[in-house]
Amino acid sequence: MEWLHILWIVLGIGLMLVLNIKYKLNAMLALLLAALLIGGAEMVSVLAGWIPGDELTLSSLLDTMMTGFGSTLGSLAIIVVFGAVIGKLMVDSGAATQIAQTLIDRLGLRWVKVSLVVCGTVFGLAMFYEVAFIVLAPLIIAVAHEAKMPFMKLAIPAVAATTTAHSTPCSSRSPARWPWWTPTTPTQA
């Protein structure tokens, strides 16, 4: 009956998608409801004896949810907020529009994708992954508006460049720079 864990997670993800797509419910509220469904299903499974584990209570379920959400949001919230502020300032100050006009004037419409790939690469190397997207989004929207091109035609190459650059060992936030990635003791020849 170990497959029940996977079943509950699949049902939770399905609930979250239905609530988001069909009922247009806020994503955070849908995520909370899906977590409650998964936790409740796990609680019933343990109480019924279908899966082994410690007895769960509604109180322990809510404590686990609060701890999980709190630690995740607490660590990312400040970074994402500052990225959103920078992105909003780019839009409000006209910087995004000015950058878009400069890219189009200097490089022309033919090279606008390449210029956004370069921007995405620079942002991916220099910033946290989440912040790079938040800062890059207004720029992509402004360029798409100025160039009269479909948004996704510009967003996909820029996001791919950001992802690739962020994953390289040159990036300060790259997984290749994590301590467990490199050996701690030198190899002997």
Can you walk me through this structure?
It is built from seven helices and no strands. It has 189 residues and is mostly helical. The protein is elongated and about 70 Å long. The termini are far apart. The model has no long low-confidence stretch (mean pLDDT 82).
What topology does this entry show?
Elements: H1 4-21, H2 27-48, H3 58-93, H4 95-107, H5 112-126, H6 129-147, H7 151-167
Helix pairs in contact: 1-2, 2-3, 3-6, 4-6, 5-6, 5-7, 6-7
Overall body shape: elongated
Distance between the termini: 50 Å
| Major beta-sheet overview | none
Let me know the average pLDDT: 82
Task: Bin the strand percentage.
Answer: under 5%
Q: Which structural class fits the helix and strand makeup?
A: mainly alpha
Evaluate the radius of gyration: 22 Å
Helical residue percent? Answer: over 70%
Q: Strand tally, please?
A: 0
Query: Poorly predicted ranges (pLDDT <50, ≥5 residues)?
Result: none
How many helices? The count is 7
Secondary-structure element pattern, one letter each: HHHHHHH
Could you write a compact summary of the structure shown?
The protein is mostly helical.
Give keywords.
elongated; about 190 residues; about 0% strand; mainly alpha; 7 helices
